Recover the amino acids of this structure.
């Protein structure tokens, strides 16, 4: 645990950039350093275990399905114990994801998340991701906006 009392916005930004780099781009064994075991994640799909175990499972599946998965921070806003992020994710679909067999296609989609932290651990998470764009890019569904 990290005492975040008195952190400036710049402290939070540095922490958050390291947090994302480590969890998505380096290794899953950092989860215990960043997530409370009883994390409340409002973005987990149905059927995933509660707490940090469900988050670890979801991220593991993302990294397996998209081995070159990259998340880019587009905006970051810090307000008290919450960090709001607007992000872009990219990757190549080389493994099964959500029951969709590998397509070999590139994807790029966007989202916004809100993370609440206590003593440097994420304790609550909300997110909205453009899954429609992801499914269109993988060829799973046709765009409703095509001629």
């Amino acid at each position: 645990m990290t005492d975040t009392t008195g952190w400036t916005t710049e402290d939070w930004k540095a922490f958050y950039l390291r947090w994302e780099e480590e969890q998505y781009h380096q290794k899953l064994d950092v989860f215990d350093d960043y997530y409370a075991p009883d994390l409340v994640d409002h973005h987990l799909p149905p059927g995933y275990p509660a707490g940090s175990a469900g988050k670890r499972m979801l991220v593991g599946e993302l990294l397996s399905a998209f081995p070159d998965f990259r998340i880019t921070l587009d905006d970051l806003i810090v307000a008290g114990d919450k960090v709001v992020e607007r992000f872009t994710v990219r990757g190549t679909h080389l493994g099964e994801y959500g029951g969709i067999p590998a397509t070999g296609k590139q994807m790029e989609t966007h989202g916004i998340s809100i993370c609440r932290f206590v003593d440097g651990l994420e304790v609550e998470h909300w997110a909205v991701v453009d899954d429609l764009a992801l499914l269109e890019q993988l060829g799973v569904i046709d765009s409703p906006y095509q001629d």
The CA atoms of residues 21 and 71 lie 8 Å apart. The chain has one domain: 9-137.
